[in-house]
Amino acid sequence: MKTKKENLKDMKGDELNKKLAILQENARVIRFKAEGAKSKNVKESVTLRKQIARVLTELRARSVQK
């Protein structure tokens, strides 16, 4: 799952919330796929968790800054 690196600081708050919802849904789907059978791409769930953490960190930094 290669994607170009996005600059989260340039995104608006609602865009970050939408991205977070999409990433969390993808993580949920992958987690349930892994339960039933061996996952072909093990690193995909790790990458998604890191992306979610990055978005949450940016949202938290904005809320503290205000």
TrEMBL record:
GO biological process assignments: translation
Keywords: Ribonucleoprotein, Ribosomal protein
Gene3D superfamilies noted in UniProt: 1.10.287.310
Top-rank lineage group of the source organism: Bacteria
GO cellular component, one term: ribonucleoprotein complex
Entry-linked InterPro entries: Ribosomal_uL29 (IPR001854), Ribosomal_uL29_sf (IPR036049)
Keyword Ribonucleoprotein (UniProt): yes
GO terms, molecular function: structural constituent of ribosome
Similarity comment: Belongs to the universal ribosomal protein uL29 family.
Name this polypeptide is given: Large ribosomal subunit protein uL29
Annotated source species: Candidatus Nomurabacteria bacterium RIFCSPHIGHO2_01_FULL_42_15
Gene: rpmC
